[in-house]
Model the fold of this input.
Amino acid sequence: MEEENLTSVTEFIILGFPEYPELQIPLFLLFLLIYLIILMGNLTIIALTCLDPHLHTPMYFFLCNLSFLDISSTSVTLPRLLDIFLRKGQRISVIGCFIQVYFFMCFACVEFVIISVMAYDRYVAVCHPLHYAVIINQRLCALMAAGTWIFGFLEPVTHTVLVSCFSYCGSNEINHFFCDFSALLKLSCTSTSTIETVTYLLGVIVVLPCFTLTLTSYIYIISTILRIRSTEGRRKAFSTCSSHLTVVILFYGTMSCLYIRPTSMQSLDVNKLFALLYNILIPMINPFIYSLQNREVKATLRKVFKRKYMFLFF
Done:
């Protein structure tokens, strides 16, 4: 019995995308470009928010948190994928794999909470504009941000501890581009019923309240906007939350495709595709959504470029 509880696998092999052996270098260049766009786009949002006093508001404070989160979450997976494409660096230690699982789940949990917090912020801005500065003050922003990150880093501990206690005595090949939680469960020769139950319960604890808060906030926001009589007033009110609403739809859309599908429709190859959308597409387009649909960000960008060109000219 004791030998059965021992983990005989000492390392895992992350397959990445072995079905395209002739495209490894082009894929490396493509994902390197995507990673650079993610870094530059989100760092630009953070830098603009820090440089312009007009952007020192709760909305942009939370947007900076979201940008930092996007950089962190992609940095957990993309560098390893680039190494697989370039140097066939598919081998990862068991401990390294569990660490990657932990941080991926941490940032996913933080994203659920921070998106719901941003939805509440937009609810107060649209539905209670006169009391916005009183309700969403600096102290509350700091507490919500700190609570979000602390909760996000504590919640996956149980999952990581449980999955690290499993025995992996069969294949050590992970059919994914990172150490995915569901892919690891398929390699375990230990019963996964306990961790599946824990995952379901913790999912209800985390996802359901976040989704409910986000949905409720936008129900009140939309009903408030519809009661505004003037077309210009409705347009201005909607513009304050259109960027975040777009992000909400993309986030919950990809997460639903990734996790909320019938078991009969799930496969690791399909999961890889949806994981790419969640882990790469959203962090890449988030800065563009907030900059292209936001007058304040565009105005700050123009001022920064204007100063740069004046400095070069003189």
Summary: Residues 193-227 form the longest helix (35 residues).
